[in-house]
Amino acid sequence: MKNIGAYAIPSVIAIIVIYGLAKKVKVFDVFMEGAKDGLKTVLGILPSLVGLVMAVSMLRESGALEIIVKVLSPVANFFGIPEDIMPLAVLNPISGGGSLSMYESLLKTVGPDSYTGRVASVMMGSTETTFYAITVYYGSVGIKKSRQTIPAALCADVTSYIASSWIVRLFFGK
User: Fold this and answer.
1) Neighbouring C-beta atoms of residue 71, cutoff 10 Å
2) Is residue 102 part of a domain?
3) 76 with 89: CB under 8 angstroms?
4) Do 165 and 84 contact (CB within 8 A), yes or no?
5) Chain centre distance of CA 82
6) Can you give the pTM of this predicted structure?
7) Distance CA 92, CA 86 (A)
8) Which helix (H) or strand (E) holds 38?
9) Which uninterrupted H or E stretch holds 130?
10) Which of the ends of the chain has fewer CB neighbours closer than 10 A, N or C?
């Protein structure tokens, strides 16, 4: 039972190959065709991803992130969102890697069992990297106009931030 995870993926691959061979499918040819389609998708979304990574780097290095955090801090305090979490909340819809790094640093500083650590944990588990997801999913199918997707997704993120704070306070106190 200890090594079941080590055998899971090779077992699934073996089952797929055996099933394909039993159905007389040219498994390798189908695999190569799928790999070509995957590469086309990657090439299609690569410019958007490069732009997103550059924008996140500029946001962090320019000091704009700190300015945005200072402007939003009074609103966050009103809703009970710890000020330490605000950089994480601002960066999370933009960059999963950047917010994960910030989250890890936050937990090292305040501890995972602190009020701030718990709110950050709930927040990370209940939100999405909005702009990354839209870039990847819309870019892969060629959608150029996101219409109401971004405002709706950002409203969902803000709701998750507020709810994270309230739920942690409800179950654990402050």
Assistant:
1) 11
2) yes
3) yes
4) no
5) 21
6) 0.68
7) 10
8) helix 27-62
9) helix 130-141
10) N
**Cβ neighbour number for residue 117 with a 10 Å cutoff:** 21
Contact 86, 72 (CB under 8 A): yes
CA dist 167 and 112 (Å) reads: 16
- Please indicate, yes or no, if residue 121 is contained in any of the structural domains: yes
The predicted model gives 111-118 an average pLDDT of: 92
Domain, as residue range, for 68: 46-172
Separation between Cα atoms, residue 120 and residue 111, nearest integer Å: 11
Say if 3 falls within a structural domain.
no
How far apart CA 134 and CA 138 sit, in angstroms, is 5
Distance CA(108)–CA(105), nearest Å, equals 5
The answer to whether the beta carbons of residues 62 and 23 sit under 8 Å apart is no
- Map residue 94 onto helix, strand or coil: coil
Q: Is residue 41 part of a domain?
A: no
pLDDT at 58: 85
Give the model's pLDDT for residue 5. 78
Radius of gyration of the chain (CA): 21
CB count in 10 Å sphere of residue 113? 10
Q: Which amino acid is at 142?
A: G
The one-character DSSP state at 25 is -
Average pLDDT over residues 103-121: 92
11: left (phi over 0), alpha (psi -120 to 50) or beta: alpha
Number of domains composing the chain: 1
